[in-house]
Every structure is written in C-alpha cells, then in structure tokens.
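The methods section describes the discrete structure representation at length, but only in general terms. An entry of this sort, consisting of the sequence and the corresponding backbone structure tokens, reads as follows:
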Amino acid sequence: MKKIHLALTLVAALSIGLPAAAKDNDTQTRKQPTPAELSSAVRSTIATFKKTDPGMGRFFSKSLAYVVFPRIGKAGFIIGGGDGVGELHEGGKMVGTVTLSFLTVGLQAGAQDFSEIIFLNDKAVLDRLKSNKYEFAAGVSAVIVKSGASDSADYRDGVAVFTKPIGGAMLEASIGGQKFNFTAK
C-alpha cells in the first residue's frame, strides 16, 4: 500500500512540477515580443500559412476577423499547459493583441511549439472575444495546415482554427480549453 501511495505521490509531483519547470525554463529563454517583433512575426506566419496552403486566402478575405498566434508553446506530463500572444485583425486592420493560455489534463508528455490562426465569422463570437468572455471548449478541433487542407475546412460555430507545428514533440490524449484575453490597440 505504501508503494502505491508513493507512486501516486511521485506521479502527482511530476505532473504538477514538470509543466511549471518547463514553463519557468521557457520564460527564462523566451521573452515577450515587442509590438514590432509581434507584428513582424504575424506577417511572417500569415505568409507561411498562405504559402503552405494557397486556398487559405478565402478565410482571410471572407472572415469578419482573425487572430494570428505566431508561436504558442505547450508542455505537459499528465497536467499540461501553454500560452502565446497574437494579434486580432478586424476588417484587415490590427485592432489589438490577444493572449492565450490553456490547461490540459490527461495522458500527455512532451513539449511543443506551434502557430495558430483563428478565423471568426460570427459577430457574437468576436464580441465575446473582445470582452474577454470567450473560451474554446475541449471539443474545438483544428486543421493542421498543409497543401489543400483549407479546401474541405469550414467554420464551426462561427470559428475555423488552423495550426502549424513549429518544433518539439507532444504525445497527448487530453482534454482542456483555451482562454483568451484581448487588449485593444
């Protein structure tokens, strides 16, 4: 019985400590971008997504708004989390920044960086995002960007999400959600 309790205590300590340690280490090596650095990274991310999948242009031209996160980092071991900062564009103009944070629980191990673009085609969803009352539930799915991926993609509940891995590896079968915080320009 003591061995089981010790094992459960070790798993709990690792699951809480590893994401925090990874995040602490990550924040020591990864500083928050300046507004100019963020804007440059956003432009580069958009260009990369469009080059990878030219059909994605329809989402940029037809969406009410979109949020571009050039780099989102995540890490986890049983309990995981991550964060990123991006720009909200409405009517083709940058209107503010959005920070994203998330927590996941389940079978997971590793660390990964990825880019994400969220297209919004519903005014109510955009208003909730701008009033900091919007979260993604565990059921929201993202399309991994590759040539032709956007051809069959569409909005779901007024939202379409595309991601592109940057580096690292993460094995996961977890649930969680993403929380957004908007700051007007």
